[in-house]
What does this fold into?
Amino acid sequence: MTDNKLRIILKSLSLGFASFIILILFLAGGFILSEGYNVLNPYADTEFAANYSPEKFKQIKIGMKMDEVIMAAGLPLNASYDTARGIFYHSYTRDGWIRRQPGISLSLCSDLAWYGSSVEYGQDSIAVKVYSGWYYD
It folds into this structure.
């Protein structure tokens, strides 16, 4: 009878210790996965331009004119000109959506991976580089 009680006590302690270790790993994962990919809401930390969608942006190809890109993907979130390289730059997404929302926090550090979409144009307003992909910065 004493042997059975000892087994029950050891099983209870083992289960409690295993639960504690799993909890610690889960909580630590929130810090380790800073800038990690959120499988439940992949675009959680990405701010989109007004009429942008990743599906629309897939239509954009090198060689398209700037007005064709705007017709297909909408107005960019940010437009700039790089005088050193002589290129126009349109960005359709940006990082940090979570940080700019009061009262919203989707991770322990409030920063997740984000989806970038941008187009670079030459002096003739023809797309020379189209980028879309995940940033983990």
In short: The beta strands are 46-48, 78-82, 87-91, 93-95, 114-121, 127-135. The first helix runs from residue 2 to 32.
